Amino acid sequence: MCGIAGILKLDRSKIDSQLLKSVSSSLYTRGPDDLGFLGWSGQSSVQLSRNPDDLQNCWVGLVHRRLSILDLSEAGWQPMVTPDGRYAIVFNGEIYNYLELQAELKALGYTFHSHSDTEVLLTAYAHWGTQALNRLVGMFAFAILDTQKHSIFIARDFFGIKPLYYTHWHNGFAFASEIKALLEFPGLNHRINPQRLYDYLCLGLTDQGGETLLADIQQLPAAHYLEFSLDAPYKFDPVRYWQVNLNQRLEISFEEAAEKLRELFLNSVQLHLRSDVAVGAALSGGIDSSSIVMAMRYLEPDLEIHTFSYLADDPKVSEEKWVKIVSKAANSIMHTTQPTPTQLVEDLNHLIQVQDEPFGSTSIYAQHRVFRLAQEAGIKVMLDGQGADEMLGGYSGYLGARLASLIRQGQLGKATQFLQKASSLPNISSLKLLLIGGGFLLPENLQGAARDLVGKSFTPSWLNTTWFTEQGVMLASAPQNYKQEVFWERLKHDLENSLISLLRYEDRNSMAFSIESRVPFLTPALVNFMFSLPEEYIIAPDGTSKAVFRRAMRGIVPDAILNRRDKIGFATPEFSWLTTLSPWVEEVLHSKQSIPALKIYLVEREWQEILKGRKPFNFRIWRWLNLIRWAEKYAVKFEL
Q1: What is the spatial distance between Cα 16 and Cα 573, in angstroms, rounded to a whole number?
Q2: Ranges assigned E (strand) in 96-163
Q3: Which of 116, 397, 537, 633 has CA 20 to 30 A from 552's CA?
Q4: What distance in Å separates the CA atoms of residue 588 and residue 246, rounded to the nearest whole number?
Q5: Per-residue model confidence as pLDDT tens digits over 356-370
Q6: Bond before 32 cis per omega within 30 degrees
Q7: pLDDT, tens only, 69-124
Q8: Smallest Cα–Cα separation from 214: which of 4, 348, 356?
């Protein structure tokens, strides 16, 4: 796990070594163990050094910060160059099947000089080109300079676990692992992206597609690559190399599916345990993280397992009971953290800097503290359950999608039975299910009116719609046209769009403490298999989510966990926290930072109404506060 960056000067002028140092420093926590620089003038061989002052007359530069996980020796140092000098790579991530790929490449006549996955990835690209991507099992963002073709190739993993941003600036092109690294470039405009701002404030969306909240910085979407000539870097379009296939269904019994899923999951966890340093796990007490911890114990009976958990101080959202059950069953060393609202305020400026862009709720702070705890315990690699909910139907909204599927497919009897049984689940009612399910079936022209009825207007009173309209913003969500399999279509949409924000939060929080966070659920093999199953294998007829996975984990995970019907996760008592911090909230809302997108006087009034119990609380409060502090931190410009 590392931090990477690259710079190309269009006018062929020499790259300022101080800029390379600044970019490298901004990525320090992503790779505190080592650093490296590459320079190229377009003529002679590439130059490599740990000191950018040594690079002479270079207008192409690559930057690497190293967090040593595999092959801790000097042989794993980057930037890495092929023996013939043609290709050079900077790589952030892990290729878990590197040993299998290495064996395949050795059989083709290649020799290796290290035990690192970087050398395997570089050799795989040199041999197979872009076809190497679909052979990989891992998380990655990397750039490869081809000195023969005078081109740069950059790619991002299947799900967007690892980040990669890029920008065109006044005399060049640049890319980096984090936005803050690109903000080191002189003259780069910090102007807001109005459409993304609306999506964040009203819809709670971040990180989707190729845009960011800053208009002049883009991100390479998940499962995409791009290649551009050093002589014409403006001429490129990202190319998708993989996506979920909804047109493949297996004829397989429930028990056979559970057996196959168990095999795939255990194989994935086994691969994700490959490391030359200690490995721990984030444990919420839910089915996903508990399954990872118990799989670690099942696969490695003698492994010393450290688990790290957030415990809320509100019993209604505390997972302490479940965390203790799993820790005892796994015989793990349990570490817990219980942050307070005061600590949130104390750490907020650092958290905003860490995250680069605003985030959805204070649960991100709970996660932040878990990774801090892991660093204090000396752990450099953590396994986590991200992605499971998006492939196993873990959120309550997916019950509505399943109901909509049954209705759309004309199975009205099954839909009625499903509605009756699922309504008995915690925090679910027949009315709620009908409203969610109906939302998937409504024509596009009725969705705005429906949102108004449930208090989720596309144009809330506190939003300055005039300002957004002047910027040409679409004041609505992008239409989703669901067909027959509403449930699978929704999961696919969330896997490709919503999950990316959760992965960003996790990447930044883990790397802020120089920890590599691994997500064993997110492999193409697992996802392809899950999406080939019947819907009722995922959401059972009685509304039980993750049905086939629960069955797959019987005998490995305690029954008490697998029988859970509720879902909490990293839930924080956000209303209680912000109520306690009311003076701070009001101070932020009175900030001198001008946010023309908000009608501040109505924002302040709404906050008072919420405090008095006259209006319902939801995450919009945190989005206001986070936006204001973020705009201050990064001197964001709203005058376009």
Answers
A1: 48
A2: 138-146, 151-156
A3: 397
A4: 46
A5: 999 988 999 999 999
A6: no
A7: 766 777 788 999 999 999 999 999 999 999 999 999 999 999 999 989 999 999 99
A8: 356
Q: The sheet that has 224-229: what strands, in order across it? A: 80-81, 87-95, 138-146, 151-156, 224-229, 239-240
Q: For strand 34-40 and strand 47-49, is the pairing parallel, antiparallel, or unpaired?
A: antiparallel
> 142 - beta bridge partners?
91, 155
Question: Which residues have a Cβ under 8 Å from the Cβ of 201 and sit 6 or more positions away?
Answer: 463, 597, 598, 620, 623, 624, 627
Provide the H-helix boundaries in 129-182.
179-182
| Predicted confidence (pLDDT) per residue in 593-639, tens digit | 889 999 999 999 999 999 998 988 888 999 999 999 999 999 999 98
Rounded to an integer, what distance in angstroms lies between the CA atom of residue 339 and that of residue 491?
A: 32
Query: Structure tokens of 582?
Result: 């009311």
Tell me if the pTM is above 0.85: yes
Phi and psi, residue 228, nearest 5°? -140, 150
Q: Identify which of 66, 75, 72 has the alpha carbon closest to the alpha carbon of residue 28.
A: 66
Please give the structure tokens belonging to residue 331: 């015989």
Compute the Cα dihedral for 428, 432, 433, 436 and give only its sign: negative
Q: 327: which 2 tokens?
A: 């820790």
CA distance 120 to 493: 32
